[in-house]
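Progress against Task 2.4 (sequence-to-structure conversion) is shown through the following example record, which the project officer requested during the mid-term review.
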Amino acid sequence: MSMRALLCHMDIVLSDGSTADSTRTSGKPARLNLGDGSLSAAFEAEVAALQPGDKHRFTLSAADAFGEVNPDAIHHLDRTRFDAAIELTPGVIISFTAPNGAEVPGIIRDVAGDSVTVDLNHPLAGHQVTFELEVMQEL
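Structure tokens generated for the chain above:
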């Protein structure tokens, strides 16, 4: 497959109809790199033939969108590993530094005594999602 990139406005809609994310909110279209392995095969198949000006809506299973929930990405950490100023309540998102130096968002799922449960799965892992794309330009 040849490498190409599309600049798209994208809304990500959950099965209950709520919008999980939208590039229109920030006013910054997303760059989709086709052919480099960064997108799932199912996602690439949906967008491969799109051209500037096209609008396309499609739904992907969790496995083809952001992946299934990986239990190995849920960690129980001691409260002492967190800065005292950080609010440790369920739903709070904290940035962690991965071994490779990348910043990874983690969601606090539970706090019990000195044990803090952190979920490093993508917030949309395990969810079927609908993508609403509008191709702005080919790069």
